[in-house]
Amino acid sequence: MxxxxxxxxxxxxxxxxxxxxxxxxxxxxDVDEVxxxxxxxxxxxxxxxQHFLSGRSLLLEEVPFSIEEIHEHVQHxxxxxxxxxxxxxxxxxxxxxxNREMQLFYSFRCSRCKNVCVYCRQCIMMGRVTQCTPLLExxxxxxxxxxxxxxxxxxxxxxxxxxxxxKIKEAIRERTDLLVWAVCGxxxxxxxxxxxxxxxxxxxxxxxxxPRTDVVLELTPRxxxxxxxxxxxxxxxxxxxxxxxxxxVITTTHQLxxxxxxxxxxxxxxxxxxxxxxxxxxxxxxxxxxxNNSALIFLTATPKEVWQRECYSGKRNCVILPARFxxxxxxxxxxxxxxxxxxxxxxxxxxxxxLKWFQQRLGSGKQALIFFPHIELMEMALPLFxxxxxxxxxxxxxxxARKEKVQAMRDSKIPILLTTTILERGVTFPNIDxxxxxxxxxxxxxxxxxxxxxxxxxxxxxxxxxxxxxxHGQTRAMIRARNQLLRMNRDAxxxxxxxx
Length: 500
Ligand SMILES: [Zn+2]
Ligand SMILES: [Zn+2]
Fold this sequence. Notes:
Oligomer: single chain
Bound molecules: zinc ion
Number of strands: 23
CATH class of the largest domain: Alpha Beta
CATH architecture of the largest domain: 3-Layer(aba) Sandwich
Largest sheet: 7 strands, parallel
Structural class: alpha/beta
Number of domains: 3
CATH superfamily of the largest domain: P-loop containing nucleotide triphosphate hydrolases
Organism: Pallidibacillus thermolactis
Shape: globular
Protein name: DEAD/DEAH box helicase
CATH topology of the largest domain: Rossmann fold
Distance between the termini: 68 Å
Pfam family, one: ResIII
Keywords: ATP-binding, DNA-binding, Helicase, Hydrolase, Nucleotide-binding
């Protein structure tokens, strides 16, 4: 879109009547500064537009209101055009994702501004932001909607869930930061219910963000069931709720890029999971989507090392849930040396110790997952395992039949499933044993190994199981993972959170 610049004011070119009035035609990215109009409190602003745009940062094509109406709100100070790409000393900055890396800016011959136009590659999956792209933001009053007594849930919290729930509620009320460190199987979702109810009562806007679409899809119906009166938006690539205003938003971290200063409470689930922990863009998005006075709550089973230290030394506000909901201790991994397993597999044989473990499971009919650090070696190993049972399968992130295989595993049609770290979290099979082959590989970080061990003994019917790390040399990550689990069990026993 192009603008006519008159004095300091920007008028969309399409709204300029007749021949050019005084002024020059510019791209928004070329002006030094966008002047914001003061709010005219007498102006009867459009409530639908307020609800739609409040807390967002959107492309023109994402806003289903006419440019006439939008511009009228700009002139009365309720909406502002922001620069999609800002020129900075020595380069550019993306107004949406915060990107400053020069190699992530490309230029092309743009049909909109009929010029060579720079755009951001980093956030291109959300629609292209260019030098001629304005981002629309709401500057008027924020809608406040309060909901009283909205939680419809008849379940009960375990004592440690109740403790965490109280801490979460407090963080939401006081708008502070909190880390909830809960072991795999502690039951994180239920702990959020009361805090969210409190937030709704206070008229706060809450986001639950997670790196993975699967988690959004799993959480949404659970929250809709217990908060039937609260509008809940469920956002991920391709979702349909993008255009509704909701006090509670369950979203992938990517979709946070479309928000600005929107949320009074930001809850980030699985903060350690790829890609959030690694991705600066998403950290920027989560930061930019919060209001200045907001609560920030992290949920994780496997915080990074520095956070663990801060928790234990009292430097970080945190609550630790060392026990599972079903009150059984966490299964502890056994370390078994398996020699040079790569060489073995390349030579067409399964390492002896792994073979023995595998045959025991196959013989007793207990289902198992066997983790491998890399796809290639796993695929090489698959036929070796299949010689014993042709129902054995493998799965990895690029496998098109991934969902079907996981389902077949759930239906017990697959006795043993070989997998990469794709199944390290999120999936629950009720009664399985787990092996890691090549546990010394760099792929298996402390947090990955804790997550993998967390697959075992999830259900109250089958709270135990075997978890074995087959290795060609112990690593610090392996030892730290085991110590972390041992410490959780010790804490759980001393607080009487586990039986026996
Ligand atoms: Zn960008
Ligand atoms: Zn352009």
